[in-house]
Model the fold of this input.
Amino acid sequence: MSTHRTARRRVLRLAAVLTTSALSISLLAACGSSGGGSASSSASSHGPVTITFWAWAKGTQQVVDAFNASHKDVHVDFEQIPSGVAGGYAKISDAVKAGNAPDLFNVEYAALPDFVSQGAVQDITSLVPAGLKAKYLPQSVEQTTLGGSTWALPLDAAPQALFYRKDLFAKAGITTPPTTWADYQADAVKLKAAEPNTRIGTFFPDDPSTLEAFAWQNGAHWFSSSGDTWKIAVDSPATKKVADYWDGLVSKDLVRVQTSFSQQWTASLQKGETAAYLGAAWGGGVLQGTVAGAPGNAGNWAVAPVPTWDGQPASGMLGGSTFAVSKDSQKAQAAVEFATWATTTPQGIQARIASGTSSMFPADPELLPAAKAAFNTSFYGGQDIYAVFTAASKTIVQGWQWGPGLSVTNSTLKDAFAKLGQGGTIDGALGSAQSATVSDLGTLGLKVAQ
Amino acid sequence: MSLRTADTARTAGTARTAGTARAVAPRRRGRYGAPAVLLAPFLTLFTAATLVPIGYAVYLSLFTEHRSGLGFGPVQTVFTGLGNYTRALGDPVFRGGFTTIAEYCLLYIPVMVGLSLTVALLLDSALARAKRFFQLALFLPHAVPGIIAALIWAYLYTPGISPVVGALGSAGVHVDLLGHPLPAVVNMAVWEWTGYNMVIFFAGLQALPREVLEAALVDGAGPLRTALSIKLPLIKASITMVCLFTLIGSLQLFTEPMILQGASSQVTTNWTPNMFAYSAAFGRNDYGLAAASSVMLALAAAALSFIVTRVTRTRSERRTEAAR
Amino acid sequence: MSAVATKETDTAQETGAVRSATAGRSRPWSLSKTAVNGALVLVTVYTLLPLGWLLTAAAKNTPDLLGGNGLTPSNVHLVQNLHDLATQDGGIYFRWYLNSLLYAGLGALLCALVCVCAGYAFEVYRFRGKEKLFGLVLLGVLVPTTALALPMYLLASEIGVVDTFWAVFIPSLVFPFGVYLSRVFCAGYIPGEVLEAARMDGAKELRIFWSIGLRMVMPGFVTVFLFQFTAIWNNFFLPLVMLSNTKLFPVSLGLYVWNSQTHGNPEFYPLVVTGSLLAVVPLVVAFVALQRHWKAGLTAGSVK
Done:
């Protein structure tokens, strides 16, 4: 066990020095195989450390299986839970409170500050060497560093992307996917004209994260801090512009208003009544899993960069997950070891993508070739979707920060979105969310700049 | 709740069930041993799983958590007095939950009680055939767990999936229950509970004294008049009890909207007080707020039930006196 | 029990006779046989249609389920769905099923015993503060069980029993309404003379309860059991807050979690639907088989 650890540390230290991607990949690969072998002798005397791990990201089971097969010192006990907003976070909070939380769990960037402020996760700064941090995209590191400490290891970055049905677009006379939001609206009109029951996309009233990604793309900063004071700007002009645009699409009946991942939404995609989906890199696998079973879908989907306001590529991040160690875990080191393996080794990403269910964009850019090689592109007609994601990842607007109290921001937004079509607007929702967030931070005892 | 209600209940129950003289022969005093042993399990469990949790919730509701800096440091628990209560009551979302419940009750109780009474009266009429079959068929939904009932109905509400919405649509009737969660949830509850309460009413009707109905017959009352002006008043006690239990049940509304949430965004996370308490606890980890809202919900339920029993009891007493 | 049933049928027949005479005479605005039975059929369609849908839906695969396609002999996937149900997560569904049977079966059995003991004590003995104590029990009837679930969770997590079998099992033993029902049943079924006679013979109080009281009030016991069995089988909120270990889940919570998994994993839809069908079956069978008991229970509970 200790042999393996030392080997690993040596490799990581090396990686910090040698930034050449090819070299560090091969070293880590070597660690994965020979390290595992050398550990087996010592493991027999100590027995492996078993850690428990909860997650919902696609392909996680395969990652865990691959890890367990190649490691004798740490054994991961994996349990699949519902996605965070669908009840997964409630389950984790519940378990943390009860004192039987898993050692390790996946949490999205946006939810991390809430988990940290509730004291549900462990500060892992001392377990994360600088060399490891240097491997991840700076935006991902930014999102996992709160108050100067490291709280999680990033799994994936989530550059935005537009998934669309080539055949339906062509039928409506659209030859290239929209590059600006004006194009997107024009194409929405064309699609509806060609087939009255077809819409270009969906506004998800139950999931504000898409709107947040659009606000991010447009340069908004909902949360920012200076010193120990928070500044909340949910209803800033940059977000209002986005909200007004979507209010327009909704009121002109150019997009559907449907619950995300609901039966209704799934059915409308399967039947081709919804011709596109504004998601993120991970959405490629999710979309495939959602519609692949239905006729007419496989091979007809394609990916394009998310439209922008001025035609210059820009992206926010929509989702994206991290590995966080729970507060009371006594096995933080083993948990970080597994998380490191899952997020920075080609084997880790390969196991996930080869499961055929994930199109995740690794937060460690060195893993891109492995991810790309493992992804079966037949659903996307052979398109190199990772090229699109890679380009988009380079345009992720820097400086966005999430903050505690986001769960209140989101629940206020959802409550207000529920009134869409009954006098409520997206724009109006921003005002309520702004004041609810400010007052919630006050309740937590935090300082908020007025 | 009143002891007198219980006593009348027992007397009535005896008269109707066994028909034998009730066995309340004065029992020897001083035999504390046996009743203590027999009561101990229940009282222990009742204390452990009802009284203590309520007390603990009251205690927890007096505290809140404070953070410092940007909120990523240690958490401090501070006494806040009634702070959580004023915070919940001051939150339009929490009050909105009670509004939802009030609207739900106003729609649900009349519809469900009305329907189950109607069906019970129809079954009780001499014209009905296959009474056993109908009773069973109408009762069956009660055997379906609420969560499964909600899952089924969520499918049946969704356009494009539901054969019902489809059939109605082709008949020119467009229903959008996903856009109207209140009637959607009311329908689920009506489906689950109509048969159950119908059986209660039907049993009450079947037990009505023959002479009264004969008298009505002699007076020349038709079946509809007999039903409305003779049978209904006679099973008033059952109706009151059904309304009371339905009311308590309504305050607990949780499962059905939780499921419908996955299909209809109009069911918000804080749609009912129970959902508010749940999301306060598990969404925001605000246990003080969750405890305060649970306590208030329990208080509201007890108060409401007290009022209902009070009002109906004084009325029925007045009636009994008048009859004498 | 039998007394109740016989009495009911008698009255039913007699009043029925009286009423058919009435119906025969006054026609003008009265309801025709067709109208009455037609209305009943209509309501029956309403109650049975969702169950019928469940029956057909359990045989569909995801695209047919979400596409709203009808079931034709060529697209029956029932066997496939059952196979998936049995193998998903290592066949955990059947574990949930057993858990439910354990929570509901054992829980309702113990609960009924506890309730009958208490109801018997309240009915048969006189002691100081009895009616005050009974008033407290009745107050317990009025507190919504879900309003209690969260406080129970908070308490359980304080003493560290959250996410254990007991966290769900013990609260389900408490059923104040069952105590009330038991008292009513004891009043109806246990003649005081019998108890007195037993005492004359020198029998001990607890022995009298065990060999005479409990036997005589058995119908009440069955009724309380049925009530609580249904309540525990249907309970969702308490396990939802108490349990995070999937191995302890009852079937209701398991289906809920799978239903949440459909979020991005549509292959879970048929699992949830087929699993729902299987979860409904035992209760439907129980209710069809035990008709007399639940009817008697509802009657006793209602006569107030």
Residues 122 and 183 of chain C are 7 Å apart (CA to CA). Chain C touches chain B through 133 residues (CB under 8 Å).
